[in-house]
Specification:
3% strand, globular, two-stranded parallel ribbon, 333 residues, mainly alpha
Length: 333
């Protein structure tokens, strides 16, 4: 039986993955089939922190995801124009779910390739891994995110008679929606740290000090429910957008949430708020990594998609390895 300590993410907690296939549980087999776990430092020598860090452009991330989001929208547009038929909500919903699963899995593999090439932030310490006793929880939380968020957006916005339409203002729309969603998340997140009775709903997520992408959903159910359902609903009520715009937003949002937990040693910004970079309020992987590494009840860097609200409300911390002067602007990832 797993102990309380066994249930917490920690270095080498995923040694169970080396067992025989017949000895793994169904959830462990599912995780292995997804091929999302990082290699252990017992099996792979990661680069150690040394010198300046490379940088990733928001444009690169945008172009990587753009075909993934545009293909289903284009296919629906062609189908409706060519046949005059509409797309049933169930088909649209399944499509959104599959696109998100594909995007998140692909991005997870991308993050793994980056950390193997460039190493981890605070790389002298091994990254936390997924304990064997939490694979069931991981799958449940992943399914709730993969099925729940698309369902919310479908119920709020989908009109089967509406031909796919995007505005020339799409980049600005995505930025504004993300900043508003981050405002909701910022205050909810900060409240769980500063209000004692709310801390119990967030404490589990902070048992990982050096997270990996797949530990994004390692949290208590109330926190997950708020993140998955409440945040997008409140944001939509303030700033409603059409289905196709929010389809794109969701894919970018979910994949880049993973980036905040990947720990790659690089200047790696969030693409949805890259327009804030001239004002120094963009978010990079290290910002949320420091929130986990050094934060507990008292913390900082509460935003997940930008540093705008942390900057305005005085809860932002200084970066360590990805300060502008420590970025090698001649080495692009």
């Amino acid at each position: 039986m797993a102990t309380k300590h066994d249930a917490r993410p920690r270095p080498f907690a995923d040694d169970w993955k080396h067992r025989k296939w017949s000895e793994l549980s169904l959830s462990q087999r599912a995780v292995m089939k997804m091929d999302i776990l990082n290699r252990s430092s017992k099996d792979y020598t990661y680069p150690k922190p040394k010198g300046k860090v490379p940088y990733m452009t928001a444009w690169n991330q945008c172009m990587f995801l753009l075909p993934i989001v545009m293909l289903p929208l284009s296919a629906r547009w062609v189908f409706m124009q060519a046949t005059g038929w509409t797309v049933h909500p169930v088909i649209a919903y399944v499509t959104m779910v599959l696109v998100n699963v594909f995007a998140m899995t692909t991005y997870s593999h991308r993050h793994r390739a980056y950390v193997e090439k460039y190493g981890f932030l605070d790389g002298d310490v091994d990254r936390d891994a997924m304990p064997e006793s939490t694979t069931d929880k991981f799958l449940k939380e992943m399914m709730m995110a993969m099925l729940g968020r698309p369902l919310v957006l479908m119920l709020l916005t989908y009109d089967r008679t509406e031909v796919p339409t995007l505005s020339w203002w799409l980049p600005l729309q995505l930025t504004v929606f993300t900043i508003l969603a981050d405002f909701v998340y910022y205050w909810a997140h900060r409240a769980t740290h500063e209000i004692p009775w709310l801390w119990k709903f967030h404490r589990l997520h902070h048992t990982t000090k050096h997270p990996s992408s797949y530990l994004l959903g390692f949290a208590d159910e109330p926190q997950e429910i708020f993140d998955i359902f409440v945040t997008p609903i409140v944001t939509y009520l303030v700033y409603p957008l059409n289905y196709d715009t929010l389809f794109i937003w969701l894919v970018y949002f979910m994949t880049l949430e993973m980036g905040g937990h990947c720990g790659v040693r690089a200047y790696y910004p969030g693409v949805l708020t890259s327009l804030l970079q001239p004002f120094g309020s963009e978010i990079v992987v290290e910002d949320h990594d420091l929130h986990h590494r050094n934060g507990w009840r008292d913390s900082y860097n509460y935003g997940k998609q930008s540093m705008l609200w942390d900057t305005l409300f005085g809860t932002r911390s200084d970066r360590i390895e990805t300060r502008y002067e420590n970025v090698d602007w001649n080495t692009r990832m």
